[in-house]
Amino acid sequence: MKKKIIIGVSAALIVIAAIAAGVITGVSSKKKSSNDINVSCKAVVTKNDDITCYDWLKKLCNKTGVEAENYRKAAKENGYITDSDEFSDDDIASGGFIALTSMRAMGEGKMQIYLGTDDEISDNTNIELAIDKDLIAEDSLDKGFSDEEADGILDKFDDLYYGEFWPDNIENVSYKENVSQLEYFDIKDYKEDDNIITLDDSAARNLKKGDTFVFDYKGDKVSKKIGEDMGNGTFSLEDPEIEDVFDTLIVSDSASIGIDDIISYYGLDNVEVSAGNPVTTLAANVSGNIHSKGFAIEAAVNDDNELEVTLTDNDTHTKYKLPVKQKLNKKCEKFSIKWDVNNINVGAQVKYTLKNGLKYASVGVDIDSEISGKIGVQGNFSDGIFLCQTPAPIGNHLVAVNVALYIVPTINGSITLKVEVPFHAGVSYEKGKGVNGTMGLRSSMQTSIEAEGKMGLYFRTAPMLVTMKSIPLLDAELDMGAEADAKRTGRPNGQICSDVNINAPVFKLGTGNESVKYKNKKSLLCTMNISKDCEFESFAKSKSLHYEILADGTKQFVDECTYNEQSENDKPKESEASTEAPTQEQIIQGTDTKESGSLHTYKTRMAEYFPEQTTFYFDYPDNWTVVSERVNANTEFVIIQNDNGVQIEYSAKDNKSGIDYGGSTVLEAKNDVVSKPRYNSGEELVIVKTKDYKEYSRTSPDVREYDDGPERYALMPASTYFAGCSTGIYRGCYFETPKETMFYSIPSKKLTDKDREEIIAILKSFRDTP
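The structure corresponding to this sequence follows.
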């Protein structure tokens, strides 16, 4: 497949040049009725643990940067489902439903560009494309898909969204009738920084105040408006608005950014060069592409608290110090950042017509890079520490993506970080639907962190879509990084221990930000008061590390703390010493679980946003990790998972989903009290084992009985009548604290005896004291 770059989402787009550019193939652009295909949303052929329609919509929404309390509603608002799609949330999603909603999520404007059409994209066309491009097999339209299989389809979604359906070299432009087009011989002098132009007499006499014209300058297309006539063919200039220039502007293309582009932007004469190794002949592949090792961006604080930025060519090791010295307003110590960049690719799409205005715009980046560094700083640099920038011309230089690069530390303490994430990310605007964001992780991320205190460290790519070097259309801020919380403990023998909890990779996206400007001008999106901020949590994984610096200076990551020295005063007297090994319950109920090295304690966080909420604690062993966290004033979700894939969820929220009686399918469960937790809320709580044994429909006489149904363990009030509901959340699974709170294992038919022991021990450790 031809490599395409990235980014974009929809808008209704008239593509006149698409077919001529060789974009499309194989699918008719004739308008079809949206009712000309009958895709059943509910799977006919299913297997255990196939994904439901609602869970699929949640995955799809999260993939496209949409987070919501109600994902069905969110999917409808974003056009992924319509009123004609008939399904219940707990129906098993068919392959046809998965394919159709995926194709709709591509965005109609994007697909119109690909198909070279201005017609609405019918359901039939979407399904044909999904099959033709191997998003889904034709014989799988009626089948269900497991959670893992659904993730595989979303990976294919990424490949198509950022590849096949991203056409290159699309360009259709027409200027307004009153816009003059100057030739190079019409221009005697142009001072870009002063915004002044001097024209030949013949060209000057045809222009007056308020007129708009376009011309070529250093390979770029530039548009300006006459401000004042200064005499002798000289005019002061103003930046026009898009409606002053274009009748039609349709562009779709991509470009790469390398070290030469950044140096060229600042000017080689302004860059301090330190020679590296002699330049050797670089290897090329059969297509003639050079195999470059990329470049590194290094930033360090000098004695005057100024940030100095240096580029290093990884092929020749030549260093280029940029004319960028940023005075930091907070004192930094030991500030040293290295950003290794293998490649930066940018893409842009835009459709503007005088009749409909800005219908569609998209911008984004595809980066393969690694960041590492040491920082000692107190404070928050959430606005970012600027490193460098460069424009990337797109297509025939009608538009450009101006890319600014930042480091964004939020730190209290000293940090050493290394993180590697190849990713693609983008922001798009569609008239009538606002802005949307997409973020994709192209491979696994590796991290290593030594920390004291709390930190968040990101690198930010801030691309802005600009046309005619004067009209900024769409801005974006795309952050990738890691967060860590470390507790540092000094030992009497000189050993230093740090318990570090890492959450990575963390992606953040924003657009319509007033602080992001091009030549001191806000983007069109910002002036339209259209903005968005979101965080992509689905990629993030939590990891707990124990890091030690031994007395001899040795540094090591270990599973358990190696310090075991006790002073004589701390050693138990012989009469006090126990000869029996502690039980699992005794370990969990101990107050020194972190010291033991075998358990970790989780502290819930909603009280940080809603002080009335009770703060809870629970313990989990080393083979469990936190895989998902989300918290605000209204909702908190935490999921921990063991090596066997078994999950326990803690949740607190406003609505009483635990007593939802809706839906057409009802589950009934057998229930047994197996233990009690440490927490006592005033009403007795018990740990209950629930096992599904019957499923029936409210709308039909069908009854399904399980010989060995899914099994879960949950905290429940002792007074609750235990039964099942259509959502699979048992009615007794909540208690008020004052939010609705639940703590339970996810239903599973694969629990081992070891899983059950660990689940019960974790639920028993639930408490409101550290």
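The domain at 176-240 is CATH 2.40.240 (Ribosomal Protein L25; Chain P).
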